[in-house]
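In the lab's daily routine, each protein ends up as an entry in a very long ledger. A line of letters takes care of the sequence, but it says nothing directly about the fold. The fold becomes a row of whole numbers, each drawn from a learned catalogue of backbone shapes. The protein below has been through that process, and both of its lines are reproduced in full:
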Amino acid sequence: MLSFDSTDFDSTAAYLDELAAYVAVPSVSRDASAETMRTAAEWLAAQLSFAGGRVVATEGHPIVRGEWLGAPGAPTILVYGHYDVQPTGDPAEWRTPPFELRVDGDVIRGRGVTDDKGPVFIVLKVAQAFIEQEGALPLNVKFLFEGEEEIGSPHLPAYLREHADELAADLVISADGAMWRPSEPSLSIASKGLVTLTVEVGGAATDLHSGRYGGTVANPVHALSEILAGLHTADGRVAVDGFYDGIPELSDERRAAIAAVPFDDDRYRDDLGLDALFGEAGYSTLERLWERPTLEINGVLTGGKYTVIPHVATAHISCRLVPGQRPERVLQAITDHVLAQKIPGVRVAVRPDEGGVPAYTIPADHPAIRAATEALAHVYPGQDVLLAVIAGTLPATALFEEVLGAKTLFFSFSTADENLHAPNEFMRISRLREGMRAWERLWRLLADGPHRLAPVHRDGTR
């Protein structure tokens, strides 16, 4: 067993000091400079010196690669994560400066600390401890850390296809993808897919004085509101013909399994500061969260607090998909639905975004799930390991399966309540060493014993 107290880092404070340097790099992929993004990538590459860590250019932000292949005959895994982070939002909403790692009781705060810099840091420390204490890793490990996950990984597909032979592995393990909640250890056996689009309604050639022209022309804001209101029925069901095509019926067995998961609707509601929950009728809150697709209006841009009739109104929409749905068909169904609403006096356009992602699943009896379950049970004795679903989307999973023929195991020590993408992002300090112990155990289990990985051939067979 590795010791995470007898390496060069002999205290939690030392781990936090090192992680603080990583968090301090404001690697916001949406708008950071190329120099800033490269600084974050170089920090990671330096941590992978034992594996030939290097920064590799792409058409966008660079990728960090490394590999340690000193275990002949052992399985090979590909560890995936990302070094980019979300924008901070309004700095006034943060308790502490976003890019200064701060200890706040039993948690640490800072942008990216739980998505995904802290979870990646855990893997790095485990790999370094193996090399320092045992001189080798128990299996062959390749590392791939990207800088564009938070903007949809636009350049990862081309890079992965170009370097598929170099990145071939028996399993991908993602340090990204949070546990369900802090009350019990969990593994995710699925994640939802994603499509996004924009609906634009145009009217006159320019904004108009609401007194001089009001009542004589169509108002794009009114028209857009009508369109958006027509996307759902009053009971929360998506009112788009074809939206639910391909989704299998939720089985009695699955419903029973979900019902057996301890879940308090009242607490969930109260934690969100609401007086009522709402969603598709006929399903429980947890069934809607894990098993049902969604269509959400993410933002509306138009006009302002001044007396004009705006000449254009725009809405941004996202849909989270479940197994059985095809991204291109969902986009087409929504487009057809919107354009079928003939509203006089305005022009309506639907612009689907590129990069739709299908839902992802890994069988509950996959060797990686069995090994990960045992690893978590070792670190959290006496607690049941919950098999959950990530309601969000990790675009790389479908890509890894398509290009490498390998399933992805989510093994993150982030938890879903840690303000991912929001102000005051945090991570529980205890998760650092818990994660290190679990990753160590997982690697040993995958390398040997009843959960040892079988090699995957390029055609996907074993």
Notes: The domain at 193-247+293-352 is CATH 3.30.70.360 (Alpha-Beta Plaits). The mean pLDDT is 94.
